[in-house]
């Protein structure tokens, strides 16, 4: 839940927020000086008049939050206002360490759910497991707590907190001692074959390039002559670290990315600064639809310099650059200032937030409108259109709409919890297999749970039906509408069956992680993941590898 400021602070920061965000020494500001000043004055007067004269009592803090959200909501989802707590969270993500319980938690409708306790960290040692619902923290009932409940889990090192949690309907207590937790950019690396190393790079914090280089060095000492760099699910992070990671494989003074903006000072080029750590080792880079931003800079530069083979599914397409600007009282506004481009000139950004469709949704570039570009060294044809299109595309790497819906509604995660407590324990990850019978049990479980996966088709029908109700036509079409809903539900169930392979893969991963933690999951994937196997096949076939790059 978004942190709210108290009323007094809100009243004081109104003008400073606007002023520090707008009074920039830019040409656009100078040209629009009068218009900006005029709009500030109008807004200030309106804000005051509403608070003083509205028929019901108003909450100035809520009014201001809504005004800010409305303003940035017309831009793009990455231009946002950060409270003081959110600023601190951003700093933690960048530096890669914090003091807490050592677990991933998520908030669902005022519930705090343990998503993943990290092995041997405080939450794990206290006995918490994935799927546990934390009810109270140090006597604070989370159902009544209106701020960000996750902040209650943080604190000074070696301090204790008492939590009450629910597991399978039963309440239990635990005492957790907070500790300093290091968040690794490279959480896992190992040999996948006697001469192929495998590195997972999960985030681009300040340690990303140093940890990647260390991992590669150790793998080479163990005999690695080729390497797989796994960027799947990596949401990005620091631009400087994306350049530094690319520099591990790409030589000195090479363009890695450029940024372009309407504001001249934000037009920049980013070059590698050092000699490559290894400019020759064959590389396979794995990406998917959740690889974004810095991940796309690395995979795009590797591809554009023909430095390695990119495998998986088209990346997310987050090519907008943000920069935080300080505001009053420790707050910030994170503003989109420019767009990323790969060395060949491709724009990474997929969605156009400035040219929306009739429903107000950002427009995605259609495939027929993709533009062709040439790679730097061999002149291979690559395309823009948002994100990085792999050299080898695998259907199993691209989540279908129904699989995405299952993930968003936490069906995969919740079934993992159900499986952990209701099925025989998994004692050997190497022998574990999620069977066809298990899959059908999942399908039936989803149906019983009544998970609501709303497709785009359903959204359109629902919108039309609401219009019909407004126009008092619903009595005439309700029977047809209900029949259509029933048909769509049957089609969705069939869609789950049709996407059996990708759903089973996700379920297998979730269950293995419950028993063997994340390291065990990575070890399991080395032997069972189709995309990793494809990367191994390509790296073991020199002719195929060379043909792709030339």
Descriptive overview:
With 550 residues, this protein is an alpha+beta fold. It has 4 domains: 7-74, no CATH class; 97-182, Roll (Pdz3 Domain), CATH 2.30.42; 188-398, 2-enoyl-CoA Hydratase, Chain A, domain 1 (Alpha-Beta Complex); 401-530, no CATH class. Helix content is 42%, strand content 21%. The chain has 17 helices and 23 strands. It has helices at residues 7-22, 27-31, 33-53, 60-73, 84-95, 122-125, 208-221, 239-249, 294-304, 401-408, 411-422, 436-449, 456-470, 474-498, 500-528, 530-540, 542-549, and strands spanning 80-82, 97-100, 103-108, 111-117, 133-137, 140-141, 160-167, 170-177, 179-182, 188-193, 196-200, 226-230, 255-260, 268-271, 283-287, 309-312, 320-326, 332-341, 351-356, 362-364, 372-374, 381-383, 392-393. The strands form 6 sheets. Strands 3, 4, 5, 6, 7 and 8 form a 6-stranded antiparallel beta sheet that branches. It has a 6-stranded mixed beta sheet with strand order 10-11-12-15-16-23, sandwiched between helices. Strand 15, helix 9 and strand 16 form a beta-alpha-beta unit. Helix 8 (239-249) runs parallel beside helix 9 (294-304) and helix 11 crosses helix 15 (500-528). The longest helix is centred in the C-terminal third of the chain and has 29 residues, at 500-528. Mean pLDDT is 87; it is low at 1-26.
Gist of the model:
With 550 residues, the chain is an alpha+beta fold.
């Amino acid at each position: 839940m978004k942190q709210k400021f108290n009323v007094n602070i809100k009243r004081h920061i109104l003008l400073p927020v606007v002023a520090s965000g707008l009074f920039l020494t830019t040409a656009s500001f100078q040209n629009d000086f009068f218009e900006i000043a005029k709009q500030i004055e109008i807004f200030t007067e309106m804000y005051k008049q509403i608070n003083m004269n509205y028929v019901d009592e108003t909450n100035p803090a809520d009014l201001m939050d809504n005004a800010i959200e409305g303003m940035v909501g017309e831009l793009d989802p990455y231009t946002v206002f950060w409270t003081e707590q959110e600023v601190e969270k951003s700093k933690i993500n960048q530096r890669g360490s914090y003091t807490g319980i050592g677990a991933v938690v998520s908030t669902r409708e005022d519930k705090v759910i343990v998503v993943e306790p990290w092995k041997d960290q405080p939450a794990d040692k206290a006995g918490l497991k994935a799927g546990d619902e934390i009810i109270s923290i140090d006597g604070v009932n989370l159902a009544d707590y209106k701020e960000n409940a996750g902040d209650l889990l943080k604190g000074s090192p070696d301090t204790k907190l008492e939590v009450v949690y629910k597991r399978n309907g039963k309440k239990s207590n635990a005492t957790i001692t907070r500790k300093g937790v290091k968040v690794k950019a490279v959480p896992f690396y190992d040999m996948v074959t006697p001469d192929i190393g495998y590195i997972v790079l999960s985030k681009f914090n300040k340690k990303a390039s140093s940890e990647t280089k260390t991992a590669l060095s150790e793998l080479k000492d163990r005999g690695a002559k080729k390497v797989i760099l796994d960027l799947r699910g990596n949401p990005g992070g620091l631009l400087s670290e994306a350049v530094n990671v690319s520099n591990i494989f790409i030589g000195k003074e090479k363009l890695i990315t450029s940024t372009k903006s309407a504001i001249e000072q934000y037009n920049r080029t980013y070059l590698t600064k050092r000699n490559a750590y290894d400019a020759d080792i064959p590389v396979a880079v794995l990406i998917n639809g959740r690889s974004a931003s810095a991940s796309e800079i690395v995979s795009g530069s590797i591809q554009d310099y023909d430095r390695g083979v990119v495998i998986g599914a088209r990346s997310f397409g987050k090519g907008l650059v943000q920069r935080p600007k300080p505001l009053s009282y420790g707050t910030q506004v994170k503003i989109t200032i420019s767009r990323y481009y790969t060395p060949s000139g491709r724009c990474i950004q997929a969605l156009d937030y400035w040219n929306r469709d009739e429903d107000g949704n950002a427009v995605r570039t259609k495939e027929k409108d993709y533009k062709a570009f040439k790679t730097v060294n061999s002149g291979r044809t690559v395309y823009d259109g948002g994100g990085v299109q792999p050299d080898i595309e695998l259907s199993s790497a691209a989540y279908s709409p129904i699989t995405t819906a299952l993930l968003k509604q936490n069906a995969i995660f919740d079934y993992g919890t159900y499986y952990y407590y209701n099925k025989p324990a998994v004692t050997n990850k190497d022998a574990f297999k999620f069977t066809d019978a298990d899959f059908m049990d999942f399908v039936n479980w989803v149906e019983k749970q009544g998970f609501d996966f709303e497709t785009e088709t359903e959204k359109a029908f629902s919108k039309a039906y609401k219009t019909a109700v407004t126009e008092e036509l619903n009595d005439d079409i309700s029977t047809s509408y209900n029949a259509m809903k029933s048909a769509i539900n049957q089609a969705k169930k069939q869609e789950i069956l049709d996407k059996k392979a990708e759903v089973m893969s996700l379920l297998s991963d979730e269950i293995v992680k419950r028993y063997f933690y994340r390291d065990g999951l990575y070890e399991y994937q080395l032997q069972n993941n189709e995309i990793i196997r494809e990367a191994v096949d390509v790296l073991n076939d020199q002719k195929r590898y060379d043909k792709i790059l030339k």
